[in-house]
């Protein structure tokens, strides 16, 4: 096993696969949420403008289900590593908040968070873990929407810049549980590679970007990550 302790600035770049062992299905494949629901009805701005209550009902179900899930040993291994090595950054495509609940800090959430609300009119953003919401409307009278990147939405420039800054400065990037097909997120590991960082892939399966990685750790995040960080964190 490669020794992560030999690197100064590590980025963990995570996708839906890291949360599978917490009970949150990926979007693709059987059991995935978009196999059962049509995103055009529930997860795009057009749907929200058509019927905000319907979109909120869907997201309240997601908030209830995700809120009942716990971080798994993969999330905890990353948080423990970051605690000992504060230069570590976590960049995630996930919206579930499980990295922060495991204790990770300054998590860069490329696709937003299920646990933040954004006012449609004034754009103000606030944290919220209430399910159901006490109100689906902001004090200014306009609708809240979940502060997540829906299909067709642009990613926030500031968030991409923060991810690029972390990734450009790292000397090792560990990609965990991402199929590397969602752009622009999928390109980010290649930025690290061009800067000379070592690329490590943690995934039970090959991905379209596997060839770009130096090291492949084929297994589940909850099994592989505690071992990967053990030289710094100790056995967990
Ligand atoms: P994806 O669904 O395209 O791919 C998931 C990857 O995880 C696959 O390559 C799969 O082989 C791998 N995987 C499955 N089980 C794993 C495990 N136990 N350990 C490690 N890897 C495992 O996910 P993506 O690349 O993240 O892209 C989908 C988009 O949808 C992203 O924006 C994603 O974050 C979002 N999404 C988020 C959540 C969440 O917040 N938990 C859930 C579903 C989808």
Report what the structure shows.
The protein has 236 residues and is α/β, with parallel strands linked by helices. It folds into two domains: 1-23 and 71-111 and 154-236, 3-Layer(aba) Sandwich (Rossmann fold); 25-68 and 114-148, SIR2/SIRT2 'Small Domain', CATH 3.30.1600.10. It contains ten helices and nine strands. The strands form two sheets. Strands 3-2-1-7-8-9 form a six-stranded parallel sheet, sandwiched between helices. The chain has a three-stranded antiparallel sheet with strand order 5-4-6, covered by helices on one side. Helix 8 (188-194) links the parallel strand 7 and strand 8 (198-202). The protein is elongated, with a radius of gyration of 18 Å. It starts with 9 loop residues before the first strand and ends with a helix. Bound molecules: nicotinamide-adenine-dinucleotide. The site of nicotinamide-adenine-dinucleotide (NAD) has 29 residues, from loops.
Spell out the blueprint of helices and strands.
Layout: E1 10-14, H1 33-36, H2 39-42, H3 45-50, H4 52-67, H5 73-84, E2 89-92, H6 98-102, E3 108-109, E4 112-119, E5 125-127, E6 144-148, H7 157-169, E7 172-176, H8 188-194, E8 198-202, E9 215-217, H9 221-228, H10 230-233
Parallel strand pairs: 1-2, 1-7, 2-3, 7-8, 8-9
Antiparallel strand pairs: 4-5, 4-6
Helix pairs in contact: 5-9, 7-8
Bound molecules: nicotinamide-adenine-dinucleotide (NAD).
């Amino acid at each position: 096993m490669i020794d992560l302790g030999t690197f100064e600035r590590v980025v963990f770049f995570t996708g839906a696969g890291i949360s599978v062992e917490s009970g949150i299905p990926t979007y693709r494949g059987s059991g995935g949420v978009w196999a059962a629901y049509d995103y055009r009805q529930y997860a795009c701005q057009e749907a929200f403008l058509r019927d905000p209550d319907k979109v909120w009902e869907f997201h309240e179900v997601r908030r209830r289900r995700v809120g009942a899930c716990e971080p798994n040993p993969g999330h905890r291994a990353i948080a423990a590593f970051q605690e000992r090595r504060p230069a570590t950054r976590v960049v995630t495509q996930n919206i579930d908040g499980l990295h922060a609940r495991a204790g990770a800090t300054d998590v860069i959430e490329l696709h937003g968070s299920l646990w933040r609300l954004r006012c449609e009119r004034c754009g103000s953003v606030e944290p919220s873990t209430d399910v159901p919401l006490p109100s689906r409307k902001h004090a200014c009278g306009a609708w809240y929407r979940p502060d997540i990147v829906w299909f067709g939405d642009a990613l926030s420039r500031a968030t991409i810049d923060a991810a690029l800054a972390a990734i450009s400065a790292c000397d090792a990037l560990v990609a965990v549980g991402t199929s590397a097909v969602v752009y622009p997120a999928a390109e980010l590991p290649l930025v690290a590679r061009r800067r000379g960082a070592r690329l490590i892939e943690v995934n039970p399966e090959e991905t379209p970007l596997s060839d770009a990685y130096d090291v492949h750790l084929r297994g589940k995040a909850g099994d592989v990550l505690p071992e990967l960080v053990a030289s710094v964190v100790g056995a967990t």
